[in-house]
Amino acid sequence: MTLTPDPTFHATAKLAMQAPVENYGFTVMLSPDGSQPDGIAVVDLDEKSQTFGQIVHQLIMPNKGDEFHHFGWNACSSALSPMSGHAFLERRYLIVPGIRSSRIYIIDVKEPLEAKIHKIIEPEEVFAKTGYSRPHTIHCGPEGIYVSTLGGGGEDGTDGPPGIFIMDCETFEIIGQYEMDRGPQDKHYDFWWNLPQDYMVSSEWGLPPQYEGGIVAEDLLSNKYGHSLHFWDLRKRKNIQTIDLGENHQMALEVRPAHDPKSTYGFCGVVVDTTNLQGAIFTWWKGDDGTWQAKKTITIDPQPADPDDLPELLKGFSAVPPLVTDIDLSLDDRFLYVACWGTGEMHQYDVSDPMNPVLSGKVEIGGIVKDTKHVNGKDFAFGPQMVEISRDGSRVYWTNSLYSTWDDQFYPNDEGGQMVLARVGENGGLELDKDFYIDFPKGYRSHQIRLEGGDCSTDSFCYPSV
Amino acid sequence: MTALWGAVILSGFYHGINPGMGWPLAVSAGLMQDKRRSIVVALGMLALGHLIAMMAILLPFSLMKQLFLWEKELRYIAGIVVIVMGLYLLINRKHPRFLARVHPTKLTLWSFLAATAHGAGLMLVPIYLGICSVDSADTGHQAAQSLMRGNIINAVKVATIHTLAMTFAGGILAVIFYFWLGLKFLGRTWFNLDIVWASSLVLVGTLGILTARFGH
């Protein structure tokens, strides 16, 4: 508890953009075969520093095989609503779940260079108190910390549907399941919300047997991965509408609502359309009649390829799909970044008109066929994946691993973890910074990035930008 | 007597400037709907919720006050209740989670619950009982019925004047932030009043007991 709100809490997205820039980043270190413990790398992002663009601290966990993926803050700008009474929390702890072990680490990063483990929640406690497994996305909100899970109960996580659970934002005690009425929701991936408008949106990947051992081609070709968006009454904890995007739109993953709470729209990325191998972005919005709508507003075509250049999984198609695996929206809701992990491209779309996105910038790096090198001449393993945007919108960071077993299927000959930086032009455009290239320690891959003081995929705002 | 009514107004200002009693929600409402009128509507809803919370505490006391033979005892008990609430808030620093489950547009309900959970109504009880006590001493021994009517009228007056003062103070802040300061200052001017607030309850309860013992 503090005397005045944490200076990294901002009433509006616009104020967050004007705030001091990030000095540190936190990036997942993943041991894909579980031979080493996973960790969090602290990266120096202060451009004036001697060690800019280097890993300056590593916090290695005491267990092996956790499989770190996504993580988040204990508190964000949402604390500035008087309604929830959390105004005096500190943005101090990272909540880092292991999606394979279901263990959750609470990491104190008040002093980034002395980051330390504050608390460990063992898997048994997660299972017993929630009935869920494989915790994934973290958001802080009205009732505390919300954690989405990718698995239900039981050994293989298929005993009951996965969902969201709530943790106390001060003691980190698990409180229990979020849902009171989940409707038809039976798979889970990402979720986010608009707090003043009191709605939440959630998406679907697949059930644990469909991803833990690798992508299941038969399931994909028979459209058995998730393809729906669920809209919730956030505070009533009730599913109010489910939109089926069409079963060919396999794996609806990241959900990115507009940051300005006055806006009632957002975006969702779809990994692959099984009819044509396209990647897609859907825009969703609330119609005049109060019901939710969704429309495909971006399609990204697959690129023809020689089967010899393709992994087993794709040889039959003679093409490489874009594989849209992550998207991120800048705080001014102007640019949407779309990671095409298969083709090795990072796209930037101007989404000022959310119904008519326009491609405004592109970086080619990595990729199954093209395997484009970084502008500094070095290799980039896999393709562009988890992407994070600085609050001011001018720097875009990304890493390269999707998920341990999937990396191996799509990129059987690649290994390694990299984090790179691209700079955004005044009116869009995207260019790699040749001096920023982090090669992760041997045996580690990298995944999600969090920026000190908040970033574009964590903070939710309670007041509209003026 | 003037001091007691002054305390009613001051406590109103005190509650009003506390962001935890909701004035930032009025700013948010004005911005969300792009209408200045929305600020007024939101302040009205917050005021109504606060008023109901005050009445919900004061009216039962006004009925108990009818048992004027035990007047002193009642003021002692009231003082102790207020002190206990203050101590409870000092020890249990967690915010009630049910407040976070109220729909963001249901400001009257939220304001009622927030005021009740923080013992805002209780803070007025010793002041109110003091006013009633002075009143009955001034007017001598009246019929029980007319005393009771007087007590109820006093309860309504205390709750209304307090709420008007609270809305005035909160309203001024909301307008200043909406038109001039902007939300940038919200985070800088919002002080953690939790301990001060809880201590105020203890203080008011203690003063209530002392004045019952030694004064009016």
SSE layout:
The complex is a heterodimer of chains A (about 475) and B (about 220).
Chain A: H1 13-18, E1 24-30, E2 37-44, E3 55-64, E4 72-73, E5 93-97, E6 104-108, E7 116-121, H2 123-130, E8 133-141, E9 144-151, E10 164-167, E11 174-177, E12 191-194, E13 199-202, H3 217-221, E14 228-233, E15 238-244, E16 249-257, E17 265-273, E18 279-286, E19 292-300, E20 303-304, H4 312-315, E21 319-320, E22 324-329, E23 335-340, E24 345-350, E25 358-364, E26 387-389, E27 395-399, H5 404-410, E28 418-424, E29 430-439, E30 445-451
Antiparallel strand pairs in A: 1-2, 1-30, 2-3, 4-5, 5-6, 6-7, 8-9, 9-10, 10-11, 12-13, 13-14, 14-15, 16-17, 17-18, 18-19, 20-21, 22-23, 23-24, 24-25, 26-27, 27-28, 28-29
Chain B: H1 2-17, H2 23-33, H3 36-64, H4 71-91, H5 107-117, H6 120-139, H7 144-181, H8 186-189, H9 194-214
Task: Describe it.
- The complex is a heterodimer of chains A (466) and B (216).
- Chain A is mainly beta.
- Chain A has a single domain, classed as YVTN repeat-like/Quinoprotein amine dehydrogenase (Methylamine Dehydrogenase, Chain H, 7 Propeller), CATH 2.130.10.
- Chain A is 6% helix and 40% strand.
- Chain A has five helices and 30 strands.
- Chain A has a four-stranded antiparallel beta sheet with strand order 3-2-1-30, with no helix packed on it.
- The longest helix of chain A has 8 residues.
- The radius of gyration of chain A is 20 Å and the shape is globular.
- The mean pLDDT of chain A is 96.
- Chain B is mainly alpha-helical and 216 residues long.
- Chain B has one domain.
- Chain B contains nine helices and no strands.
- In chain B, α1 packs parallel to α7, α3 crosses α6 and α6 packs across α7.
- Classes of the chains: A mainly beta (466), B mainly alpha (216).
- At the A-B interface, loops of A face α2 and α8 of B.
Please describe the biggest sheet of chain B, giving its number of strands, its sense, and whether it closes into a barrel.
none
Total of helices of chain A: 5
Number of separate structural domains of chain B: 1
Helix content, binned percent of chain A:
under 10%
The H-level CATH homologous superfamily of chain A, spelled out, is YVTN repeat-like/Quinoprotein amine dehydrogenase
* Parts with pLDDT < 50 across at least 5 consecutive residues of chain B: none
Number of strands of chain B: 0
**Structural class, from helix and strand content of chain B?**
mainly alpha
Biggest interface: A-B, 37 and 35 residues
- Secondary structure tally, helices of chain B: 9
* Average of pLDDT of chain B: 89
Helix content of chain B: over 70%
Termini separation of chain A comes to 29 Å
The ordered string of helix (H) and strand (E) elements of chain B is: HHHHHHHHH
CATH architecture type of chain A:
7 Propeller
